[in-house]
Each structure stands twice: as C-alpha cells, then as structure tokens.
Amino acid sequence: MGDSAVILAQPGMLAVLAGVLGLLVGSFLNVVIHRLPRMMEREWREQAASLAEDNGLKDCAGRLRGAEPDTRYNLVVPGSRCPKCGHGIRAWENVPVVSYLVLGGKCSACRAAISPRYPIVEAVSGILATYVAWRYGITLAALGAMLFAWSLVALTVIDIDTQLLPDDITLPLLWAGLLFNLTATYAPLPEAVLGAAAGYSSLWAVYWLFRLATGKEGMGFGDFKLLAAIGAWLGWKMLPLVILLSSAVGAAVGIALIAARRHRRGAPIPFGPYLAAAGLIALLWGETINRTYLRLFL
To answer: Taking the CA atoms of the chain, what radius of gyration do you get in angstroms?
Structure first.
C-alpha cells in the first residue's frame, strides 16, 4: 500500500481532506447561489422577448432584451467582483472562510460589508463533508452523500433568497439518486423509484387539495421535485419521516416568525429549506430515528 493510500485509510486524515474539499465546493456553491437565479431570469427574458417578437411586438421585445447587458453571464464568466465598487476578487481574497476573516468581512478596495452568508455556506459545506467522510470512509456512499448534501445547501439558500428551486439542480439530483441506487447504495432501486414517484405525487396531491379548498397555491412545483429527489435517494420508506420533520420544523419556524413580527401573515414561507434539512437528517440519521420510534411506540 502506497503512502497516499495509507494516509487516506486513516479516518481522521480522510475527514480533514474531505473538509478542505467541502470548503472549496462551498465557495463554488456561493457562485451557484448568486448566479443561477440571475441566469434563469435572463433566460426567461429572452424567451419572453422571442415570444413577443413572434407576435409582432418588436418594441416590447427590444425592451426585454435591453433590460439585460449584452455580455456573457454564467457560472464561470465574468469573474467575481465586489457588487458595490466592481473590484475584481483576487485569488488570495477568495480562500474559503479564511479570506473573509482576514478582510474583516469587508471588500479590500471600498470596505463595503461582505455578507456573512458566504463563509457560512463554505463552513457548512466543509463540516458536512467532514462528517460524511468520517462516517462512510472511502466509499461510493460517501461521494453520493456529499453531492446530496451540497445540492441541498445550494437549494436551501436559493429558495430563501428567491423562493425558487431550480430544475437545474432538483432534476439532476433526482436522476443521481436513482443512479446511485442502482447498486442499492442508500435504498434498493425499486424503493428509490417508488420514493421518487411518491415524493412528487404526495405534495402534488396536497397542492391541489389546498388549491381547491382555498383557491390559493400553498406551495410551488419545485417542492414536489425536491421531495421526489429525496425519495429517489432514500427510498419511499423514509418519506414519512421527511414529511413529518419538514412540516413540524416549518410550522414552528413560521409561527415563531409571525409571533416575532418578522413575517407578515399570509406572506409565503419557502418550504424547500425544511425539506432539505429533513432530507439531510433522514440520510444521516433516519434509520436510527425510525428504529428508536418503533422501539418506543410500537
């Protein structure tokens, strides 16, 4: 066994390396969180402009296209810049967590405050990767759990910011869950397929029952797709736990926000973060929770 293999065989060293990787991935997730909704908005504007043009509304199409600068904008270009002064972020200013602390949470050029969300996302991504590596070791399950956790982190923050759960994340996450379960990594494939179907259809049914009863939309279609993705990873048997946890936490947080007058009654509350948190808990500790419940109450 080579030196590198010996090092990776040590749980502590593997966890440290995974933590560093998680910090780097967290830095990239910040880019995804910031840019992906804007990329989606650009795409919607372009589609609306094309539709307007097809219907002879050239002035409207011109206004829609003129609302966005004619520059490339994706997850790679342009380079990261300070939103206040346009200062290009240099490599040493982009070291996860460390740069934020060294700079005192401010831009090195204009001293504008940098949101603490950036190091929080990086730190959470690193901590999750560290725990997953310590728990699963060098296995396919560890790789999948990291991808699952990082995707949920990105979806959580995007939903908080925009009340959107982009298909660009939820749908690949669903397919990835099914692929990982070809070898029953987290659940047998039939249970994963049923989990995807049951996850989507259960919230779809709740959505339509609520809409028929109240005339209002209680949740978005992105929530259906996210629960379907969680079902594809964990199988249908974990869905009751996921739904129970997400509903309980969501209700408690919503009531607390309203009581503290930090959220207006009737204003929508994103449900994605609660689904994501419940899915992550179910992945890491779901079997233990279910066994404990069965032992105590059945």
So the answer is: 22
DSSP 87: P
- Alpha-carbon distance of 124 to 248, in angstroms, equals 23
**Residues 33/157, Cβ–Cβ less than 8 Å:** yes
State how far the Cα of 164 lies from the Cα of 221, in Å rounded to an integer.
Answer: 9
pTM of the model: 0.89
| Residue 6 identity (one-letter amino acid) | V
What tokens were used for 280? 């992550």
For residue 65, which phi and psi values (nearest 5 degrees)? -70, -35
- Provide the 10 A C-beta neighbour count for residue 4: 8
Closest of 183, 185, 279, 290 to residue 231, by C-alpha:
279
pLDDT tier for residue 201 given thresholds of 50, 70 and 90: very high
Give the pLDDT band of residue 4 (cuts 50, 70, 90): low
Residue 132 near residue 145, CB atoms below 8 Å: yes
- Smallest CA-to-CA distance from 284 within 129, 174, 121 is with 129
pLDDT bracket for residue 96 (50, 70, 90):
very high
CA–CA gap between residue 137 and residue 10 (Å, rounded): 9
Query: Is the CB of residue 232 less than 8 Å from the CB of residue 199?
Result: yes
Tokens of 166: 């982009």
Tokens of 75: 């997850």
Spatial separation of the C-alpha atoms in residues 116 and 280, rounded to whole Å? 23
| Number of residues in the chain | 298
> Position 222: which residue type?
G
User: 76 is written with which tokens?
Assistant: 């790679």
